Automatic annotation (TrEMBL):
Residues of the full protein shown: 180 to 402 of 402
GO molecular function: phosphopantothenate--cysteine ligase activity; phosphopantothenoylcysteine decarboxylase activity
Function: Catalyzes two steps in the biosynthesis of coenzyme A. In the first step cysteine is conjugated to 4'-phosphopantothenate to form 4-phosphopantothenoylcysteine, in the latter compound is decarboxylated to form 4'-phosphopantotheine.
Organism name: Oceanobacter antarcticus
Phosphopantothenate--cysteine ligase: annotated segments: 15-223
Protein known as: Coenzyme A biosynthesis bifunctional protein CoaBC
Keyword annotations of the record: Decarboxylase, Flavoprotein, FMN, Ligase, Lyase, Magnesium, Metal-binding, Multifunctional enzyme
Necessary cofactors: Mg(2+); FMN
This protein's pathway: Cofactor biosynthesis; coenzyme A biosynthesis; CoA from (R)-pantothenate: step 3/5; Cofactor biosynthesis; coenzyme A biosynthesis; CoA from (R)-pantothenate: step 2/5
Record domain DNA/pantothenate metabolism flavoprotein C-terminal: where: 10-217
Annotated residues for binding of CTP: D103, K113, P129, D130, I131, V132, F147, K161, K165
Length: 223
């Protein structure tokens, strides 16, 4: 029973997965972040390990236990996550970006706690590097899979991201649905490649992770 899902489809493959939110500091006590729970990324890490891969999980701050037999690299900001991702590049066959990376960070981090003053405060934010796009640009790039978190026009936005970021596959997530996505134990997604798309109906994230990796492993094998 324990080996029911040990397909070995990723035996010998080195898989790197980003997961969770990033936190972008404003000052020593405050940050900008998002509601990502990390559950999907952690489920993918577990499923990849079970499928025989050597797995590195690069995780932002989450409330989840480290998966067994997975190398966990804990990071905080998008800048840290990019550095950790680039450090794995030489030894990576498959890169899956499930992290909800903050798109912007405060332009400066105040050294001291920002004091309450006027009735309004203005923050200047600067764009963070795009981690998955940076990986996908590399000469010796791994097979690269991204996620697309969308509230509307899921299909069009997901296909556009697949192209723009030069990804091999993208997993689109409708985050406007309350029953799935951020924080939920279940998810429903569509997996796109340049060859077409596959729908995965709502199911437990652990089961979905296994099914997604089975589909990804098939594409990886034909390369
Ligand atoms: N991503 C990343 N680095 C960033 C932003 C996003 O690696 N700075 C990755 C995510 O991990 C995901 C994919 O890019 O795999 C798409 O993330 P998403 O937030 O849906 O897309 P964005 O390109 O940031 O566009 P937008 O938020 O405007 O929809
Ligand atoms: Ca984004």
């Amino acid at each position: 029973l324990a080996n029911r899902f040990t397909t070995g489809a990723l035996a010998g493959k080195r898989v790197v997965i980003t997961a969770g939110p990033t936190r972008e500091a404003l000052d020593p006590v405050r940050y900008i972040s998002n509601h990502s729970s990390g559950k999907m990324g952690y489920a993918l890490a577990r499923a990849a390990q079970e499928a025989g891969a050597e797995v590195t999980l690069i995780s932002g701050p989450v409330h989840l236990p480290a998966p067994d037999r997975v190398t966990l690299v804990s990071v905080v900001s998008a800048t840290d996550m990019l550095a950790a991702a680039l450090a794995t590049l030489e030894h990576c066959d498959l890169f899956i970006a499930s992290a909800a990376v903050a798109d912007y960070r405060p332009a400066t981090i105040a050294e001291q706690k920002i004091k309450k003053a006027g009735d309004e405060i203005q923050l200047t934010l600067v764009k963070n590097p795009d981690i998955v796009a940076t990986i996908a640009q590399h000469k010796n790039r791994p097979f690269t899979v991204g996620f697309a978190a969308e509230t509307n026009d899921v299909d069009a936005y997901a296909r556009a991201k697949l192209e723009r970021k030069n990804l091999d596959m993208i997993i689109a997530n409708d985050v406007s649905r309350q029953d799935i996505g951020f924080g939920a134990d279940d998810n429903a997604v569509t997996l796109y490649s340049k060859h077409g798309s596959t729908e995965f109906t709502v199911m437990n994230k652990a089961l979905l992770a296994r099914q997604l990796l089975a589909a990804i492993a098939i594409q990886l094998a034909v390369l």
